[in-house]
Amino acid sequence: MDQTAAVESRAKQIEKEYLSSLADLNVNSKPLINMLTILAEENLEYAQIIVHAVEKHLAKVKQFMSILTHSTTYS
Length: 75
Hints:
Layout: H1 3-24, H2 30-42, H3 47-73
Helix pairs in contact: 1-3
């Protein structure tokens, strides 16, 4: 595996791990938030990947909350 492929593989792994941890964050959990912070600090070279993962998660949550709000409004 060449260096570029290794970096891309690591980036995908970090994104997957970060998205998985964000999915677990369904309550205000200081330990999980601390873990996410540490993971980000340990992978500063992948900051863009982590930011993209957070944006992706926020869009998903926003969409879910919109659906939830509309479904309870008309119930």
